[in-house]
Design brief:
Rossmann fold, alpha+beta, eight-stranded antiparallel beta barrel, 568 residues
Length: 568
């Protein structure tokens, strides 16, 4: 006999949430200014809502992730007495219709005063799927717009920002209930299922592949990002022989290439695809008909592996072979081209010297087989700073800073104000990057939007890698993590066309280093294979994210790729 499932025996869920903040009728198009104005005028806004669904399965599986809202609102600017909430709708982690890199939690509800006046609240939390960095700020900050009427079509009355206080959040966790279960076991299982969905969206790397955004000011509204002038990306993952998952993001602009773009250590491929410049390198190559592949190796700030311990050897011996093979397999191309920057460049050269096959030509930026450090990095290497920090129990360093930093972090950044530099590094992120790496960009070459977004690009760096690069700097050339000269005896393996690019003003890794590499390769394999470009007025990372790189540098990269690209 068939069994019929009805709504009454479906498992449901409910929880209660309290949020507090400020609201202003005087500002209708700027959440932050409205909240500031509301705070100055004492216009508080608070609600306590119960979110419920009679069908947990539908809530989790339907793309709208819908639930109901009831509750009350205290908002003196609207009514001297509490307002009741009816006809409320909540959406959990729906895809943001305006940006593929975010999800939203949406609140829509009618608020009715004791006098019968009806208002409509439309609110949202923006969740950037960026593992681990800004989860608290994202999931506890609600941007609200109040309409003078019963719907979204009613005139806007005002705006504000609400937050969950830690104490309220702890209480919210105690209100989470799974309803209509038949046993304690089922209750535990369904609660865990909801928790898995919630955590999965927050921490799943795939969910955040396109444009992760580490919040520098947790109180700042989300940055509006321009759409990239490329087709929708295709995302591929590959696993190395030592079990690390890497990411490849493909923008198929044509049949040239394929070309793999590998960023520096402690950053992600966002360093190439940042939207704050008029034209970034992937867009530039895409427009010229290239099949562009952004390669996030294990040091990528977007991957969980960034916080694990590894050296440059693992990137060279495991990551490059796995990624090149994946691109060749998917595209059907016998060979690929490479644009590597900093550690993306050095690790590629190490991989080739270790026997990597399938690369047709390469453009190597800033860091080569003979890195020559500027004075501060020489001091770091000579003092074995990475080893010293390890003894102190420090395993990773992170350039992230926010305006709610604790006193230890604020003290750290106060001390870093004294760190010597010729660049006007006036914000904490600049100073932390300076301490961790050196002068990696000339601020004069960045536009304001890129400088403001610099925290989005950088992430943690592990000290095992810093010990390795310090050893390389002390030796004056690439060696393995144990100091053995296992790479340079095989220079014949670099007998492919390679263009070296170096910023003339690079105060991080000096141009003399790539000059040594260039002469060594020419002597070993013949000068016809190699060319070296020294770019005036540029330093290190600004060669890729500078405000004028699309006219100053990208044409040089394109010309070097075009010499050896093939049509498939």
């Amino acid at each position: 006999m068939a069994t019929t499932t009805t709504a009454t025996n479906k498992v449901g869920i409910r929880f209660t949430e309290t949020m507090r903040g400020y609201f202003s009728k005087a500002v209708q198009n700027d959440y932050k200014r409205a909240a500031q104005q509301g705070k100055q005028s004492g216009s508080q806004f608070e609600f306590t809502l119960t979110v419920s669904s009679d069908d947990l399965d539908m809530m989790l599986t339907d793309e709208s992730h819908k639930a109901k809202i009831v509750g009350s609102v205290i908002a003196p600017a609207l009514s001297p007495e509490p307002l009741s909430v009816t006809d409320g709708e909540f959406n959990l982690f729906i895809v943001d219709p305006d940006s593929v890199n975010t999800r939203r939690m949406v609140y829509r509800m009618k608020m009715t005063s004791e006098e019968g006046k009806v208002y409509y609240l439309n609110g949202f939390k923006v969740v950037h799927n960026d593992p681990g960095f800004d989860i608290w700020a994202d999931t506890t900050t609600l941007y609200i717009t109040v309409h003078d009427g019963e719907s979204l079509n009613s005139p806007v009355l005002g705006q504000g920002i609400l937050k969950i206080l830690p104490a309220d959040f702890l209480h919210q966790m105690t209100t989470l209930q799974v309803t209509n279960t038949t046993s304690l076991t089922q209750q535990v299982e369904e609660t865990a299922r909801f928790g898995s969905f919630f955590a999965g969206v927050l921490f799943n790397v795939y969910g955040g592949i396109f444009a992760p955004s580490k919040v520098f000011d947790p109180d700042a509204p989300p940055r509006q990002k321009r759409p990239l002038r490329m087709s929708a990306p295709q995302v591929h993952f590959c696993t190395t022989d030592d079990g690390v998952q890497l990411r490849l993001i493909r923008y198929q602009g044509g049949t040239k290439g394929p070309v793999m773009l590998a960023p520096g250590f402690g950053t992600s491929t966002l360093a190439f695809s940042i939207d704050t410049v008029d034209t970034n390198l992937p867009e530039f190559l895409y427009a010229q008909g290239y099949d562009v592949w952004l390669f996030d190796y294990r040091a990528s700030a977007d991957l969980p592996s960034a916080t694990t311990q590894f050296s440059a050897d693992e990137i060279a011996l495991y990551d490059w072979p796995a990624a090149v093979e994946q691109v060749r397999s998917i595209t059907g191309s016998e060979t690929v081209q490479v644009v590597g920057h900093c550690v993306g460049s050095m690790s590629f050269l190490m991989a080739m010297l270790a026997g990597l096959k399938g690369v047709r030509s390469a453009v190597c930026s800033q860091l080569t087989t003979h890195p020559k450090a500027a004075t501060l990095n020489e001091i770091r290497a000579g003092l074995r700073l990475a080893s010293f920090l390890t003894v102190l129990g420090v395993e990773t360093l992170n350039p992230d800073f926010d305006t709610h930093a604790d006193w230890q972090n604020k003290l750290y950044d106060t001390v870093l104000r004294l760190y010597p530099t010729k660049e006007p590094y006036n914000n904490p992120v600049d100073r932390r990057i300076l301490f961790m790496y050196g002068e990696v960009y000339k601020i004069a070459q960045l536009n304001e939007a890129t400088h403001d977004a610099i925290h989005e690009i950088f992430g943690p760096g592990n000290l095992t890698f810093f010990r390795h690069i310090s050893l390389i700097l002390r030796q004056g050339h690439i060696v393995d993590k144990d100091g053995k000269d296992v790479y340079l005896p095989h220079l014949e393996r670099l007998a492919i066309p390679i263009a070296l690019i170096h910023g003339a003003d690079n105060a991080f890794f000096l141009p003399e280093g790539s000059e040594i590499t260039y002469k060594l390769l020419c002597d070993k394999n013949g000068g016809d294979l190699y060319v070296r470009h020294v770019i005036p007025d540029y330093a290190h990372m600004d060669c890729f994210m500078g405000k004028n790189t699309a006219k100053d540098i990208f044409p040089t990269i394109l010309a070097e790729l075009d010499k050896f690209n093939q049509l498939r």
